[in-house]
Specification:
The structure holds 2 protein chains of 2 kinds.
Chain A (H helix, E strand, L loop, with lengths): L11 H17 L2 H7 L8 H9 L18 H13 L6 H13 L6 H9 L4 E3 L15 E4 L2 E10 L6 E8 L2 E8 L4 E4 L9 E10 L1 E5 H40 L1 E2 L2 E2 L4 H29 L8 H32 L10 H13 L4 H11 L8
Parallel strand pairs in A: 1-4
Antiparallel strand pairs in A: 2-3, 3-7, 4-5, 5-8, 6-7, 9-10
Chain B lengths: L11 H14 L7 H10 L21 H10 L11 H14 L2 H13 L4 E4 L15 E5 L2 E8 L10 E7 L10 E7 L5 E6 L8 E12 L10 H13 L13 H11 L6 H29 L7 H23 L24 H7 L10 H12 L20
Parallel strand pairs in B: 1-4
Antiparallel strand pairs in B: 2-3, 3-7, 4-5, 6-7
Helix pairs in contact in B: 1-3, 2-5, 4-5, 4-6, 7-9, 8-9, 9-10
Keywords (chain B): FAD, Flavoprotein, Oxidoreductase
Family (chain B): Belongs to the acyl-CoA dehydrogenase family.
Organism (chain B): Streptomonospora alba
Chain lengths: 380, 401
């Protein structure tokens, strides 16, 4: 099998970006304050998002002419790690990843929207269910007729605070991507399993949409947005797993029972060693997925597209379970305190489990891989 | 060549030039391999991080892969070196670190050229994971030592000229303090090598009985009672064996089962498909982890992930080989050959699936059990406290055995 050798390390620039995101989050949004706001009506921290946008986080892969950072998805992945590590309630996934990638793939038709998203002046999202896997075809929930969009889409990420909706819809002329002002839609919050990432149902009843991509271009733009989303989601999951591991190792060193730190018992330390191994492996897989996704937008990226999809599916198939396992182990090894509402651990468990279902479950991604690497399912 | 930069100031391009100059002088097509390697040793291109005159150039260790890759690119990779793993991987770095000038001059070159094979007399029936509990005794008489005891799991002992050996020289002090490290001549009187048959039917390893073996004090490596510290160097090198080459996707055992799946639609069931995909994903994750570690080493920043690589490898081998048998069903109930024999070299993938399954059971025991590797990660990487110890301050002779 031919696969490109990808850079799996972090560059100095990436480490600097990580440090500035981390210090901003530690200052403005530590887990305790995230916990304090999850029962507010407006969970999403728009003030924090504006500050993140000031250091370039809202438009990393957007060119500098459009007000972005002109960086690559490798940088986006480092940011996703840090946002996961802080369960930060900001619209990075919906706005800076899904909507931005879909619009970038739509050529020049959406430069105005891109500019606003990249600068953090507005936020957007892609109107598909957040559980949708990249290979599941073009959605038909929204129908287009004479420029008017009708349909309902459930479980959309970051829609509650979005100003701009990017809507895949099918009309007489086939699939298309449409830009719709959020004011034209009815957005109804749902109670999300993940307290720090609100979902919403989006209802369009004759909303006016502007078409930014049609036919095969629209299909490709949507697919690339979801593949990129899957790759960057795995980076977020890595951040969640890293927090869970670090917090639990710290706790095991200080929590004393039977006259000694619980981390000195092999029954505990072996579980943490296993977790550390899984997290180190996840890091290599995530770096590979981010680097492969970064090649998607290179000119003439044909073979790269297949490689990016293999890596994204691999990352979802592997890292989803690592993040869930890390959060579950963290809860068990914290004992009673880990089961309380007052400890922020549950935010990470809820994020980890919800992320494992987002953009395709591990099982769906394994099935996608089986087609990509010629390991076919048994015929009935 | 004499004006070229030397030592720590050498860089990759200077080394490539040295390799090119060397190959121009010694044509691998017409030079005998051993002579070629001897000349390569003398040119300092055996281990570039070793000192000049001892196979190296005093260059940074991270540059060794550059030299190996360059020799390979120019069409020369030494062959038949499987028997040298202990010598090259463990004895050489230990002799370099602790050997006297006489010892380094005597042993390093024939070790490198393959003229002399080495083995390792460490484990004992009563000292496996707890190597420091070893009971092989060495008693000093004048300028020599008399050594008696039993060693086990010694690969290559039946072919080796020398061994690295740890023995107890002082039973009256705590176990880590009374050990001394020696070089043992395997042809000496009293060295009795017996094949140790394993669950696969063959014998890769040996038991070595030492009956009043005389070892001159000049073959002691490091100070008396310093053996544990010396052995740490040996064991550290055992775990740092990440190759200089990237591995391809779907290499190793996973490629055998993947090929089997492709070629035999009749074997496919939904449950096996699910297991195969899970293991394929795990194998790819392990490969990328190793590749990431290789990239870290290449820029001179090794990560602690190396200690986990062996653990992942053994778990994967065991699970994949188990799946291989399940996939084969009736054919999995057969075995190629139980005949007792001494295998030479690597033939793992050429043997039958039953052999893969049985042999890989040893992977999580040899070279550090999975349980010990977990302790190492937990204590040295994560900084978790060790279990309370009852054996650290007690004289070795008073420990329960």
């Amino acid at each position: 099998m031919s696969e490109k050798r990808l850079d799996l390390l972090y560059s100095e620039v990436e480490e600097e970006l990580r440090a500035s995101v981390r210090s901003l989050l530690e200052d403005k949004s530590p887990p305790e304050s995230v916990l304090a706001r999850v029962e507010d009506d407006r969970i999403t921290d728009t003030a924090l998002w504006k500050e993140l946008a000031e250091i370039g986080v809202a438009g990393l892969p957007v060119s500098e002419e459009l007000g972005g950072a002109g960086a690559s998805l490798r940088e986006s992945a480092v940011v996703a790690e840090e946002l996961g590590r802080g369960v930060a309630p900001v619209p990075f996934m919906g706005s800076a990843v899904l909507a931005t990638t879909a619009l970038l793939e739509s050529g020049d038709a959406a430069t105005q929207e891109l500019e606003a998203l990249a600068g953090g002046e507005s936020t957007g999202t892609l109107v598909v269910g957040f559980a949708r896997a990249p290979g599941s075809g073009f959605p038909e929930a929204v129908q287009e007729n004479g420029g008017k969009l009708r349909g309902n889409v459930g479980g959309v990420v970051d829609a509650l605070t979005a100003d701009v909706l990017v809507v895949p819809a099918v009309g007489d002329s086939g699939p298309g991507l449409y830009v719709v002002p959020a004011s034209e839609a009815t957005v109804t919050p749902v109670v999300s399993l993940d307290l720090t990432r609100p979902l919403a149902d989006v209802s369009l009843e004759g909303a006016a949409g502007r078409r930014v991509a049609s036919g095969a271009d629209a299909e490709r733009a949507l697919r690339h947005a979801l593949v990129t989303g899957a790759a960057l989601l795995s980076a977020e999951q890595l951040g969640v797993a890293q927090w869970a591991l670090d917090a639990t190792v710290d706790y095991a060193k200080t929590r004393t029972q039977f006259g000694r730190p619980i981390g000195s018992f092999q029954a505990v330390k072996h579980r943490l060693a296993d977790l550390w191994i899984s997290v180190s492996q996840a890091r290599a897989v995530v770096r590979s997925a981010a680097s492969a996704a970064a090649t998607l937008r290179e000119p003439g990226a044909g073979a790269e597209a297949a490689e990016a999809e293999i890596n994204a599916s691999l990352a979802q198939a592997f890292v989803s379970s690592v993040a869930v396992k890390a959060a579950e182990e963290a809860l068990q090894l914290h004992g009673g305190i880990g089961f309380t509402w007052e400890h922020p651990l549950h935010l990470f468990l809820k994020r980890a489990k919800s992320d494992a279902l987002a953009l395709g479950t591990a099982d769906r991604h394994r099935l996608a891989l089986s087609g990509r690497v010629d390991l076919p399912a048994p015929s009935a | 060549m004499t004006t070229a930069p030397a030592g720590a100031s050498l860089d990759a391009s200077a080394l490539r030039q040295r390799v090119a100059d060397f190959v121009a002088e010694y044509d691998p097509e017409t030079t005998d391999q051993r002579d070629f390697l001897a000349a390569r040793f003398d040119a300092g291109l055996a281990w570039v991080h070793f000192p000049e005159g001892e196979g190296g150039l005093g260059a940074p260790r991270a540059l060794q892969p550059v030299v190996d890759e360059e020799f390979e690119r120019l069409g020369y990779t030494p062959v038949g070196r499987e028997g040298l793993v202990i010598g090259l991987g463990m004895a050489a770095p230990t002799i370099l670190a602790f050997g006297t000038p006489e010892q380094r001059a005597r042993y390093l070159k024939p070790l490198y050229t393959g003229e002399e094979i080495w083995c390792q007399l460490f484990s004992e029936p009563g000292a496996g994971s707890d190597l420091a509990a070893l009971g092989t005794r060495a008693v000093r008489e004048g300028d020599a030592w008399t050594v008696s005891g039993q060693k086990v799991w010694t690969s290559l002992a039946h072919r080796a000229r020398f061994a690295i050996l740890v023995a107890r020289t002082d039973p009256d002090v705590p176990k880590h303090k009374g050990i001394t490290y020696f070089i043992c001549d395997m042809s000496a009187e009293g060295v009795d090598v017996r094949a140790l048959r394993q669950i696969t039917g063959e014998a890769e390893f040996n038991e070595v009985y030492l009956n009043d073996v005389r070892i001159p004090d000049s073959q002691r490596l490091g100070g008396e009672g310093e053996g544990w510290r010396v052995a740490q160097t040996t064991l550290m090198n055992e775990r740092v064996s990440i190759g200089g080459h990237p591995e391809p996707r779907e290499g190793g055992l996973i490629s055998l089962v993947s090929q089997l799946w492709r070629e035999r639609p009749d074997l496919r069931t939904p449950g096996l498909h699910d297991q195969l995909l899970r293991l394929w994903v795990d194998a790819e994750a392990a490969r990328l982890t190793k590749e990431r570690l290789r990239q870290q080493l290449a820029i001179g920043q090794p990560g602690p992930e190396g200690s986990a690589a062996k653990y992942s490898f053994s778990r994967l081998n065991q699970e994949i080989s188990g799946l291989e048998l399940e996939m084969l069903g009736a054919e999995g109930m057969t075995y190629d050959d139980w005949t007792f024999r001494r295998p030479e070299g690597v033939e793992f993938t050429k043997r039958s699936p039953g052999f893969h399954y049985l042999r890989s059971k040893g992977n999580s025991i040899e070279g550090g059990t999975t349980e010990i590797l977990r302790n190492i990660i937990a204590e040295r990487v994560l900084g978790l406290p060790s279990e309370p110890r009852t054996d650290k301050d007690v004289a070795w002779k008073d420990l329960p055995k």
